[in-house]
Design brief:
By secondary structure, this protein is mostly helical. The protein is built from 15 helices and five strands.
């Protein structure tokens, strides 16, 4: 559809900008880059394009600032990405890049390698971390590769750009100590207002089960179940992989108490089992947003007296859970499964004692040989 709706033409004067409604067209573009042809607003292609853009804007309303053409390009590209987390991240990267280009009077599809190099240098000079710059390059590179694949642009300006080197063992994520983890749970259990029970359940899911933001917010009540004697929550993780996460007694109790509170009056305890909807809901019954989870974690951390409360995120609790599992002596392969990491090397980054000489295998080998 996108290749039929957006076309390269050699005569810019014969084209009009993209229209998704019946409004009059603006002045024709004279850019030598991509030119947009607008079929009749009632055509199937226009209807499909409008539906595509509208659907993406529901999830990513910030894209509304783009021009009609760029919005359609972004919507088509983002719709091809399966992960909601990747779509959010890459959309932010594209908006940042497009905003910088617009400030220099450059269209999105007219960008060159030199401009990408300059953008990277400016970010680094401003103090952006190497990992952040590398990820932003990955995001806009994905956009241009999509356009190139569909013959919507003549090249990828990010191709060949040197990516900053990132230390695979470094993380800027702030974790919690064992005492701070306990204090955070206590703060959640004594939280004020109607959201107190939800706070207790959310913090335990993040900390005890090391869930990712998308996993916990994407879970529904119907995803609770049992498997071989374990009470489990089925989550959709990275790569659209489903995983059954066992729930500890404390987490399960907090969830049941919270869901019983949400159950309509007269249905009794456990009546939530016939309910539908998100596992963690807003007071109106909608699904929590990532920003609300961030605010919850920081507010509870401040109430718990954690000095670094303003540097914490929901991922800090996942980071803490994985680190504590290793500190508690759980075998690496079991922690890898717990964290849902594909590669054990990712899990090893969380091992704070991996360089300890006390754990050197040399002692075990010498003792084994006698």
């Amino acid at each position: 559809m996108i290749t039929r709706y957006i076309t390269r033409l050699s005569d810019p004067a014969s084209t009009v900008p993209l229209m998704l409604d019946n409004t009059a067209p603006a002045t024709p573009s004279t850019s030598p880059a991509l030119v947009v042809v607008a079929p009749a607003a009632s055509s199937p292609a226009a209807g499909m394009a409008g539906e595509l853009v509208a659907d993406v804007l529901v999830e990513l309303p910030a894209l509304a600032v783009l021009t009609d053409r760029d919005r359609l390009l972004a919507a088509a590209w983002l719709a091809s990405l399966r992960s909601a987390r990747t779509r959010r991240s890459y959309a932010g990267d594209l908006l940042g890049w497009q905003g910088w280009l617009a400030g220099h009077g450059i269209e999105l599809l007219a960008a060159t390698r030199v401009q990408v190099d300059l953008w990277v240098r400016i970010q680094q000079t401003a103090g952006a971390g190497d990992a952040s710059v590398r990820r932003r390059l990955s995001g806009i590179g994905s956009f241009y590769r999509y356009c190139l694949t569909h013959d919507l642009t003549g090249g990828d300006p990010t191709a060949g750009v040197t990516r900053p080197r990132v230390d695979p063992d470094y993380t800027a994520t702030v974790g919690l100590t064992r005492e701070q983890g306990r204090a955070l749970i206590a703060a959640a259990d004594t939280d004020d207002g109607r959201a107190r029970l939800r706070s207790a359940a959310a913090v335990r899911l993040l900390l005890h089960n090391a869930l990712r933001v998308d996993e916990v917010l994407g879970a529904d009540i119907a995803d609770l179940g049992s498997d071989r004697g374990h009470q489990v929550l089925t989550v959709l993780g990275k790569g659209n992989r489903r995983a059954k996460v066992p729930l500890s007694p404390g987490t399960l109790e907090a969830l049941h108490t919270y869901l019983d509170f949400r159950t309509p009056a007269g249905t009794g305890a456990g009546g939530w089992r016939g309910m539908s909807g998100p596992l963690l809901a807003t007071t109106s019954g909608g699904r929590m947003r990532p920003s609300q989870l961030w605010e919850l974690v920081r507010r509870l951390a401040a109430a718990a007296g954690i000095a670094e409360w303003d540097r914490l995120s929901p991922h800090s609790l996942r980071h803490t859970g994985i680190t504590m599992a290793l500190d508690a002596g759980v075998p690496l392969r079991d922690v890898q499964d717990y964290a849902r990491h594909r590669d054990a090397r990712t899990t090893r980054r969380y091992d704070r004692s991996r360089d300890s000489l006390d754990r050197s295998a040399a002692y075990a080998v010498a003792a084994y040989l006698g």
